Amino acid sequence: MSQERIHVNPLHRRAGSGLFVDKHRIPDRGMDPLTAYHVVSDETMLDGNARLNLATFVTTWMDEEAQRLYAEAVDKNMIDKDEYPQTAAIETYCQRMIAELWHAPDAAAAPATSTIGSSEACMLAGIALKRRWQEKRRAAGQDASRPNLVMSSAVQVCWEKFCNYFEVEARYVPVSAEHPALDGALLEQYVDENTIGVVAILGVTYTGAYEPVAEIAAVLDAIAAEHGHDVPIHVDAASGGMVAPFLDPDLEWDFRVARVASVNTSGHKYGLVYPGLGWVVWRDAEALPESMVFRVSYLGGDMPTLALNFSRPGAQVLLQFYLFLRLGRDGYAEVQGTSRAVARYLADGIGGMEPFALISDGSTIPVFAWRLVDGHTANWTLYDLSDRLRMRGWLVPAYPLPDDMAEITVQRIVIRNGVTMDLAEALLATIREEVAYLDALTSPLPDRTASPAFRH
């Protein structure tokens, strides 16, 4: 019975409120708002402590001024540019700031839009690649029915969704110990006349690695010269797009690379904004087919829209602009640099422990991963360590690497703003204690963890 109903705390019950709330049916009568508030608040008590969640890339803390701005703007609808013209103007400010940050040839003319997150941004970028390829093929009188997209087997699941939803063949270049990320080495085997684009990742979800965009472009240049396949690049910079410009300004991964047609990032990851906000920018108008832009008049004016969603929150766009003003380039560099320093410190500490070998070290985005040393133990796995850390309040996921390296299980830590050196010290101490416990086992744990944890 308790699984079907929520017990209302007697201290929060008001006149007319019942003893229980049905979990699966809207009640016939409402209740006092304070009682309803406490019911919902109590139901979320077992949610984790966001600052100890080292699995997610998503921002979990913003300052008091941002909280106030968020509350003031929570009702704004980003799509309704006629009612909220200044919110629309601020979206444009942010688009141009980001286009300039990523070295668009003409930041003021580079098409761009905010999105609910990087997944939507990737969908839009993928659609643009497909449409542009189809238009060129049809103009040349060629078949346009078999598009494919080339990417690493370590891509985030949104690219699998794109290929599934929009009927594009996904061609996955396998990762290996020799080629742990897409680096151009095998591209010639996967690219052909039906390739709409190549996806390069700036901050691989599994390890944090930057795929070398300039090297990938050089290989595509050679393929174009030899075979005539002129293939553009989309850079999925969901995480790295708001890290590399501030910490690695000389790294050429963005529109400085001529073959890059579009770039996306998550404002709600290292853009430091609450969920959900993404951004996508195209090099120029030629990279974005006009057929993707819709114009509507029923909100009060002739408004072009470019998005999969229609109504969506405008508050996060204002928060992004607030952070650009609040931090500036120096501030972003300081925040991201601090996160990277914490990641490097933790990586050194964990890599120095006998059972572990680092897969990455936090020197790109503030993310690193490690595996168990071969032969260290038959009594426990990284899944067991993940469980032990969860019991202590820390969320540190364990999971297999992509298909061609799926026999290797790793753990990964994501450092975000708010994870301090003090917390890092506490985590290292906890890991040492739990490793000592696990190493003291004289036989395998009786109930081995079998399923990988959520890792993005």
From TrEMBL:
Record the organism: Microbacterium azadirachtae
Task: Spell out the Gene3D superfamilies in the cross-references.
Answer: 3.90.1150.160, 4.10.280.50, Type I PLP-dependent aspartate aminotransferase-like (Major domain) (3.40.640.10)
Q: Which residues carry this modification: N6-(pyridoxal phosphate)lysine?
A: 269
What PANTHER family is this protein classified in? GLUTAMATE DECARBOXYLASE
Reaction equations catalysed: L-glutamate + H(+) = 4-aminobutanoate + CO2
Q: Which InterPro entries match?
A: Glutamate_decarboxylase, PyrdxlP-dep_de-COase, PyrdxlP-dep_Trfase, PyrdxlP-dep_Trfase_major
**Transmembrane segments annotated in the record for this chain:** none
Q: What is this protein called?
A: Glutamate decarboxylase
GO MF term list: aromatic-L-amino-acid decarboxylase activity; glutamate decarboxylase activity; pyridoxal phosphate binding
The entry's family comment says: Belongs to the group II decarboxylase family.
- Which Gene Ontology biological process is one annotated for this entry? L-glutamate catabolic process
**Cofactor(s) this protein cannot do without:** pyridoxal 5'-phosphate
